[in-house]
């Protein structure tokens, strides 16, 4: 019985700390650490579950949240079926509460065929207090930032629209807070 419990806890730990594979497979083994810099400009209008629009612009190596000037942005790619994504939610709620004057979290759902009502129920069940987008353009944005290989994947973007840090998998709250404080000191 103890062996089964230990095996279960080991598997659960591995899942939590490695993240979930994204359905978008890519044969390259090179892990991208920043937004693709291809001297192009791409604009995205991502509809939230509350029928507002988040306007994002990718310009070279910058991610510009046009609706949130002078704010730090945490751009989070997730799914509702991913255990590490769910485990990350309390950390994101705390960060949004603690830094609400300086930071905005934009969660980008990477699931097709989910209705806004289904996502609203998920948001309610998890007490999510930040923007959640559910738009066909979400997948295009994921590709434009270099492809999302694992979820959750998050980009911490400073007030100058530069990616300060990319996180893949579940991230300790303390690590994100240290990075947010560094960005605030810039």
TrEMBL record:
Keywords: Redox-active center. Pfam families: AhpC-TSA. The keyword Methyltransferase does not apply. Residues 35-186 form the Thioredoxin domain. InterPro entries: AhpC/TSA, Thioredoxin-like_sf, Thioredoxin_CS, Thioredoxin_domain, Thioredoxin_ResA/DsbE_sf. One of its GO terms (molecular function) is oxidoreductase activity. It comes from the Bacteria. This is Thioredoxin.
